[in-house]
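Marked as duplicate of an earlier ticket. Keeping the data here for the record.
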Amino acid sequence: MAGAAAGSRGRPQRVNMQEHMAIDVSPGPIRPIHLISDYFPHFYPFAKHTRSAPDPHPAVIPAIRAAPRQRADPEPEGDSDDSTALGALEFTLLFDADNSALHCTAHRAKGLKPPASGSVDTYVKANLLPGASKASQLRTRTVRGTRGPVWEETLTYHGFTRQDAGRKTLRLCVCEDPRLRRRRGAPPLGELRVPLRKLVPNRARSFDVCLEKRKLEETEAAGDERGRILLSLCYSSRQGGLLVGVLRCAHLAPMDANGYSDPFVRLFLHPNVGKRRKYKTSVRKKTLNPEFNEEFFYAGPREELAQKTLLVSVWDYDLGTADDFIGGVQLSSHASGERQRHWCECLGRSDCRLELWHPLDGAPPQLSD
């Protein structure tokens, strides 16, 4: 019996199919595969060799913890869930309340999904809602040939007040450049909206928001907004009169068929008998956010000027036909709100320049001599 057992140990045992299927052949826990460079180490002549031969039986838990982390793909391919199917946009918003400006810095987009395969040429377009789309439209430069574009570009809305922050929304669209792809009229790759009431004045806030799908033709109620104008007033004691500066306009209503205007500003001091009372700036072509930086002078003592009214109106220049009225503002001691305060504070001080944004009225004011 002992001899038979010894003989069986000397030759391999045979296992029939039924016994083979009954054997538990589970390989046990799956161990991570080592890097190929561990088996073929490089030669570093100026550094000590720190690599060691791989352990043929590594512990399972330490090996999993030591496994290298996967890097995020800047241009992910394939399907994803609905919330991230269009990609995401990173940007920063800053409401500069001291200078009445809104700064939007577009940093980068991630995981964009263009209609066609391959690379894409993209830019970011910004609009303030509600309002005329062309009046508040700003855009970045175009970044070509990538699904993960980096812009690092700041778009600035001048004349943005605390009232605007409480009621307006910023819309950001990531669009494919039609001039390079010949796909005019194509919808944006994705867009998002941020209620600006969430911003804290003078404090930057960063966002990383998933893009949504909307129609490019979607319109917003513009209301009766005609735009706004930045004026500076200063009573000069040396010159003995009032200096009126027309600095710039923002978000003007488009009056031409091309969606823009050719704006200029008229000044009228009433009454101003025997003295010059009308001035006009130069024309700025095809823009809804013109910058003038022009100054005009009205002579007279401050007591006399305090009884007068300054009428500022913005017009669209038309060659060969009558100019179109865009909007106006009236400053006097009989006005109300910021218009009265701006006028009275200017005449109450000497050699102190005061700048203030004023919304434009849609109806021309009626003055009589």
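See parent ticket for discussion. The two ends are 137 Å apart (CA to CA).
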